[in-house]
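Look over this record as teaching material.
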Amino acid sequence: MGLQLDKSCRVRSVSRAGRCLWAILLAVMGWAMLLTGCAVGPDYVPVEPDAPDAWRSELAGGLNAEQADPETLAHWWTVLDDPVLTSLEERAVQGNFDLKDAMARVREARAMRGVSRASLFPWLQAGGAASRQRSSENVGLPNGGETSELYSAGFDALWELDIFGGVRRSIEAAQANLDATRENLHDVLVSLSAEVALNYLDVRTFQARLAVVEANIKTQDQTYQLNLSRYRAGLIDELAAKQALYNLEHSRSLIPSLRIGLTAAMNRLAVLLGQRPGALHEELGPVRPIPSAPLKVAVGIPAETLRRRPDIRRAERLIAVRTAEIGVATAELYPKFHLPGTIGLESLSAEDLLEWASHTWSIGGVVSWNIFQGGAIREQIKVQTAFQEQALIQYESALLSALEEEENALTAYAKEQRRQEFLGRATDAARQVTVLAQDRYQAGLVDFSNVLDAQRSLLAFEDELAQSQGAVAANLVRIYKALGGGWKPLEQSEAVD
């Protein structure tokens, strides 16, 4: 009966000690919860782009300061009303490798945020062991030469109390980095949609220029054949025939360089779609006109476009990353508190391992503090502060580059339309001059040099006009790229993971 009483007392004593330890643990946890609102280091304050109230460039050629429709910006290529271009844009989103790489980086950043979040929670590890050993008979121990066994199983736990917010700052940095990676994905979309459109316009422009050269070659060949027959008949001297020939051959020499450019544009498009060079030759072979720009283009105001541009948004998020990392570095100045614990089973016999008497447990607290490291921690804080300053500088630089790109695109679009208008008039006049020169030459009123000059001028003007038509459409593409078009912002509910 006495033995039973002693065992009961020991059990009650262990129970009281356990309750005491749990009370201490709960008190420390409560203290930690009260301090969770305190995180060392600077709190990030979002920056707003410093943008002018209006565009410095004159809004001409159909440009206006009305707010751009978000859906139109997201799928701006539809304003060119070209089904082939629309199809290419849709397939590029599915097949482009740069875009796939950017998507993989978003998944990486999301996983890294999960790794940072995991540090807020206790770590639990399970383990077990079984061993059998024999002691030496020649060491003078009482149990020398005997064989013993030991079996154990249990769980080890460790929890860092984030008293000074180092873990929370690391989560802030990981979240801001995820946001920046998303904006990088959006920036790739903006660049990709513009590159697809620009190369497609190159294809149509080269085709238009080839058509111009081939039509002029046909006319020049007719002129040469006429001069050759007249020369053979003795009606004109050899000079006019040779002049017609070198004019014809010069025009023919333009064909190979134009076909080189056409092939390169087609191959580039194929690669942008994630296909092998040459894959789109058959599809893009049939000639289509250069897409025309719409009569009106809404460009909004500078502040709106800067807030939308993914490169500016990414630069802002990187400032947030660097700010949070200052807090991570600052937290190293303060002590770290850990709560380790173990619960398990130990026995010298496998049969007794699962009995209540085999259970063991321990709980405690650990404090560690980097008291002296030669100033390394404070220097690391300075490093992170310098990184933050660099991020701010890069943000301001990105703002200026964006404004420069936007202003240049607006000016180029409006001015190229004026140039196209002038070239159209010049081309019409050149056609009339060519007809007049040929009629007067055949009537014997002028020499062949007038025909020669007229044909050269007509080819040059028609080629420049085709290039200008392509440039107007290309400058519209650059406007939409500068406005940050080509991607659609997520709704708030969709943006939260």
Observations:
- The longest helix spans residues 166-232.
- The chain has twelve helices and seven strands.
- Confidence is low (pLDDT under 50) at residues 1-18, 491-496.
- The longest strand covers residues 147-161.
